[in-house]
Specification:
Order of helices and strands: HHEEEEHHHHHHHHHH
Strand order of the largest sheet: 1-2-3-4
Strand content: 5-15%
Shape: elongated
Helix content: 55-70%
Largest sheet: 4 strands, antiparallel
Number of helices: 12
């Protein structure tokens, strides 16, 4: 991923930033963002009149050709409601514990401000609550392409300065929440609304501890797969994926089913038969590889432009020092002319350095879309994993039904050989038949969940295809226009210098 703070860090000498180079030009820019006040400390703020493309070089384009601002507006809920989300004002707070040791650990909270057409509200959240929101969305909206939340990296926290780490997380959280709000389904979800509006501690259900999950899982599996007359069965619970530890025995069964699918020649009772989906999935995997390659090359371009800007700045600084030396040591008019030439080269190099740095800023704004789509591909893979998990549940229940019917058949055969029947076997047969009913009902729920996830996958892929078309069109348009605009401005700087040099050449002849 491009790290803008790192890429844009300029390593030129501070001396270069305070160069005093006289510019006799009276040129002014037609772009209001370029009209900066001249001062002795900022001699390279005066540029030539912008050529044809230069008017657009400071503009980022969205899919409709409109300017994008840092205070991004996203549509959530109905099309008529606009939502602006910002994350600001990080504050360090102490963790409340029962420990007798003074001090203890600390964490940061962030002010999350949401503005809509009708209202404005703010809440304070810590990163742990963002994790809770992410987990709850993953559980409730299976099959949707849900934006991936920022990672909770303890390594970066140890390596980076605290202020830098907190700022990086603030930016990441803001981008994440804006993506959630712009999603046509997640943006209208009750979970996100509670996160953005609910005061106090986030009131979303969280998972229980691992030990409780393991004990609960041992009890739940017989209800799910074999049925139990003494305990009510929540069949919809079966349709949900098994959770680590919580459904321990069920996990063992699904693992066995998965191994059977992978290592035996026998075809599973239920398979993925959507050929169109499988072809789409293969194409997306290939697209992800191509996207990764383009992303790496974009990062190389940014590094090259950064190096060019730094090198031009250092060249300008070197010529300034040489100009100063020539001026101080000049004894003849020819030496003063040569010093003036070198001063003009220094001025042009410093201007070119600034232009490269500004171009790099715009290049990052546009080509960072490539990196965003790498994150989207991860979210797509998560949505596909929901589909695979749901299919595995259906396969496991189908196998369980086949096993139950087989056991009933064997017991019926064995019981028929005994005159008057075998009462213990007959009781077992009745228990197994009851388990068949429960398992069949559970499979109906699992089938329904699988079909729902498939439909979510389908609609999400259609949505992303449309967004990708507009996003990439906007990205390419902005990138090309900015490259052309800055190339013209740089050419104008050096063309002016070339004209001045030609004048010196005519005078000397």
């Amino acid at each position: 991923m491009m790290n803008q703070d790192h890429i844009l860090r300029v390593s030129q000498d501070d001396e270069m930033e305070s160069l005093v180079l006289h510019d006799d030009g009276n040129n002014s820019s037609g772009n209001p963002l370029q009209q900066q006040p001249k001062s002795p400390e900022s001699p390279f703020n005066s540029f030539l009149d912008p050529p044809s493309y230069a008017e657009a070089i400071f503009t980022s384009f969205d899919s409709n050709g409109h300017d994008q601002t840092l205070e991004q507006t996203t549509r959530s809920g109905s099309e008529s409601e606009c939502m602006q989300i910002s994350v600001s004002d990080p504050q360090e707070e102490q963790e409340l514990t029962n420990s007798l040791v003074p001090g203890g650990s600390s964490y940061h909270t962030y002010l999350i401000t949401t503005r809509t057409d009708k209202s404005e509200f703010g809440v304070r959240r810590r990163f742990r609550e963002v994790v809770t929101l992410s987990e709850r969305l993953s559980e409730a909206y299976r099959g949707y392409v849900i934006p991936v939340r920022p990672e909770k990296s303890s390594v970066e926290r140890k390596v980076m300065q605290k202020e830098e780490f907190v700022e990086q997380r603030r930016v990441a959280l803001e981008k994440y929440l804006r993506k959630l709000a712009s999603h046509p389904v997640i943006g209208k979800s009750e979970e996100l609304r509670l996160f953005l509006e609910g005061q106090g501690k986030l009131q979303l259900v969280r998972s229980t501890d691992v030990a409780s999950r393991m004990l609960d899982g041992a009890v739940r599996l017989p209800r799910q797969l074999f049925g139990s007359e003494s305990v009510a069965v929540d069949l919809n619970d079966v349709a949900q994926p098994a959770r680590s530890g919580r459904d321990l025995l069920r996990i063992f069964k699904e693992l066995k089913q998965s191994v059977t699918n992978d290592w035996t020649a026998a075809k599973p009772l239920v398979v993925e038969e959507d050929k169109e989906f499988m072809e789409k999935k293969d194409k997306l995997m290939e697209f992800e590889q191509q996207l990764s390659n383009v992303s790496q090359q974009a990062e190389s371009l940014v590094k090259y432009q950064q190096d060019m800007g730094e090198t031009m700045g250092e060249l300008g600084l070197a010529f300034v020092k040489l100009t100063k030396f020539e001026t101080e040591e000049a004894e003849f008019e020819s030496q003063r002319v040569r010093a003036a030439d070198m001063k003009n080269v220094a001025t042009a190099a410093v201007k070119s350095s600034r232009l490269y740095r500004e171009l790099n800023t715009q290049t990052i704004k546009h080509l960072d879309k490539l990196h965003e789509y790498l994150g989207t591909m991860l979210a797509i893979n998560n949505a596909f994993s929901d589909r695979s998990s749901a299919l595995l549940t259906v396969q496991t229940l189908s196998s369980e039904l086949a096993s139950l019917h087989s056991r009933i058949e064997k017991l019926e055969v064995a019981s028929s050989r005994i005159f008057g029947g075998d009462k213990s076997r007959m009781r077992k047969i009745e228990e197994l038949k009851e388990a068949v009913k429960v398992t069949e009902n559970a499979k109906i729920c699992a089938d329904r969940e699988y079909e729902r996830i498939k439909e979510n996958n389908r609609s999400e892929l259609e949505r992303i295809d449309q967004e990708r078309q507009s996003d990439f069109q906007s990205m390419l348009r902005g990138f090309v226009v900015n490259q052309a605009g800055y190339a013209e401005k740089m050419a104008a700087v050096w063309e002016k210098l070339a004209e001045e040099s030609a004048t010196y050449s005519r005078d000397s002849s």
